[in-house]
Amino acid sequence: MKKILDLMENRLKQAFEAAGYESSYAKVVLSNRPDLCEYQCNGAMAAAKAYHKKPIDIANQVVEALGDGGEMFSMAQAVMPGFINLKLAEGFLARYMEEMAEAYKLGLEEPEKKETIIVDYGGANVAKPLHVGHLRSAVIGECVKRLGTFMGHQVIGDVHLGDWGLQMGLIIEELRDRKPELPYFDPNHTGPYPEEAPFTISELEEIYPAASAKSKTDEAFKDRAHEATLKLQQGYEPFRAIWRHIIRVSVSDLKKNYQSLDVTFDLWKGESDADPYIPKLIEILEGKGLLKESQGAMVVEVAKDTDTKEVPPCLIRKSDGAALYATSDLGTIIEREEDFHPDRYIYVVDKRQEMHFVQVFRVAKMAGIVKEETPMIFLGFGTMNGKDGKPFKTREGGVMRLERLIGEIDEAVYERIMENRTVDEEEARKTAKIVGLAALKYGDLSNQAAKDYVFDVDRFISFEGNTGPYILYTIVRIKSILSKAAEAGAVGQTGEILPAAGAGEKSLMLQIARFSEVMEGAFEEMAPHKICQYIYELANRFNSFYHDTKILTEEDAGRRSSYIALISLTKTVLETCIHVLGFEAPDRM
Description:
Blueprint (H helix, E strand, L loop, with lengths): L3 H15 L9 E3 L8 E3 L1 H9 L3 H12 L6 E7 L3 E6 L1 H13 L13 E5 L14 H17 L2 E5 L7 H13 L22 H17 L1 H15 L3 H24 L17 H10 L3 E4 L2 E4 L13 E4 L7 H16 L3 E7 L3 H13 L9 E6 L2 E2 L16 H19 L4 H21 L7 E2 L2 H4 L7 H20 L15 H11 L1 H10 L3 H21 L8 H25 L8
Parallel strand pairs: 5-6, 5-10, 10-11, 12-13
Antiparallel strand pairs: 1-2, 2-4, 3-4, 7-8, 8-9
Helix pairs in contact: 1-3, 2-3, 4-17, 5-18, 6-7, 6-8, 7-8, 8-9, 11-12, 13-14, 16-19, 16-20, 17-19, 18-19, 19-20
């Protein structure tokens, strides 16, 4: 099903050609003066330069060629200095609504080429609890994955765990200091190692920060940790056994925490999974003559003459032979190429890591690991700040655990729901979890990803304004109307949608009609906030229509059935969008 913009452009192209002009000028856009028209075409302005004519003369000729606009336009008007103002015919728009209601995925067209896309998001470190710093990667990444899947692509989400760096050595050496009697530290131990981990998740989460703090003041301990990390990476079995315990205990806890965010991954790979591919990486880089020695380390020069800022060499191996983030990222890319042959890569990472990924992407393409034409997208996000404008902290000044943040939002929503006392406590708790997640995710996604934003619980959980709860409240309101309609025997979902009888009804239809255009644009630009903008405006238009229209008490049965079919379509569009954003609506609020 074609986008409504494409249908209008096709009609304008015919008119431009009939008037003797190139059809490429027939670009239609949403009007920036909705008080004058709904859409506009500014092609006559550009054509004037090419054809050495006044823009208004060209616009008048095109409008004349349009005739009465056929069934599509109720108004096509040339205005100074050369704009063509357009209004859609109510009958045409109503038929478009019916087609959307009956079409698969609301008429969204399948992509010309279905891509295999890797989305790298999450980025949690094992042995550390998820904290608020992990929120944006998880929420944005999950939305990008869902959006790509909805568009018709095969999207593979990978958590890409941090499980191979210095924190492993720090934990191992701290464990040695605390429990030197463990068999992993006995050089004479020859039997198998215990199946049970020598620590719980709570103990593990206390061990790492203690070890990290110690390494900052105890140089000898830090050296031991570096040595332990290197031995682990080189395959020393006692340390590999500890590492496997860390992975099992951590991943189990991480899955539980991500589940509370309704965030899922297709792959639970880590930096360690890249290790077997690093010899191949070194072989490729050496074979291409890209690897160079620099102060004992091995690097690849990635700077280009066209760079406007300095791009340092990409460090592949440290002088002691230890692998680095770039090494494991490149090894991971080799693994992904062998397993999935991706058509596109998307990395959802803190924008402060942009330079790292510039280096990695350049090496991947210079080495021929990834085809030059394969998009490698760095979707860098800003920080979530407190009301003081600084990175969000607990009241005590520490980094807040993610589960605590979710708990605080759920509690705040629960208290807001209980103010009305319309539901019992058990239902209020369940609803608070659904609404709380919507408040959290929408509060994040409604901001442009690259920008920092202020996390304001009171604003995010408000049932008014541009918030998740407001969107859910609108959906619940529609559900309530449809439920009452069903009880009254008025089945509207299959009813004919009639041409709009009023301005509010047409305004609602016009916003619904933009669905495919918005979803495609959000995917092309990797911009979830555009979906939020769209559904906020859609919710506003529905609520205006609702307040101005007697839906269930409309005396004309056909008109009443049309209203019910239209609001049912509105609900479907809203529910489809929030599913892509990563949350759902309750039945009652």
